[in-house]
Amino acid sequence: MDSEPGRLQNRIDQATRRLTATAAGLTDSQAREPSLLPGWTRGHVLTHIARNADGLRNLLIWARTGVVTPQYPDPEAREAGIAAGAGRPAGALAEDLERSAGAFAAEARRVPASAWDVPVHGINGPDHPAGSPCSGG
Questions:
Q1: Cβ count near 4 (within 10 Å)
Q2: Where do the domains of the chain lie?
Q3: What is the pLDDT, as a whole number, of residue 96?
Q4: pLDDT, tens digit, for every residue of 30-61?
Q5: How far is CA 17 from CA 12, 21, 29, 50, 134, in A?
Q6: pLDDT in tens, 25-36
Q7: Closest Cα to residue 123, out of 57, 48, 73?
Q8: Looking at the predicted structure, is the pLDDT value of residue 123 above 70?
Q9: pTM for this prediction
Q10: How far is CA 61 from CA 107, 115, 118, in A?
Q11: Cβ distance 46 to 23 under 8 Å?
Q12: Residue pair 26/94 in contact by the 8 Å Cβ criterion
């Protein structure tokens, strides 16, 4: 993986391994503890990361196929998904995070080099290339 997307994917994979290892070590009570984000528990943060990976996977599908695939159906669906998943047991949070990260990584490997410059847009912000870090989430 000598390309820019390949180098970025390696960095994402390394960070994901650290995150999933940390999440796997949480107890149920630790998952319900407050995070540094006002009003959010650690469960909210982990669920947000998992749903964001799903949303970013949608943008990669859009770039690869040319079929408009929104990051999220709408802002309310994004918020509802986070709220619905935040109170799950720690093991379920960790499994969800691992699954969503794996699906994102698999889709990223499917994107051809030419598609990384295809304009897509996330829930916030203007169009930008699929490989841009500006997707919002």
A1: 11
A2: 4-114
A3: 98
A4: 999 999 999 999 999 999 999 999 999 999 99
A5: 9, 6, 22, 14, 23
A6: 999 999 999 999
A7: 73
A8: yes
A9: 0.87
A10: 7, 10, 11
A11: yes
A12: yes
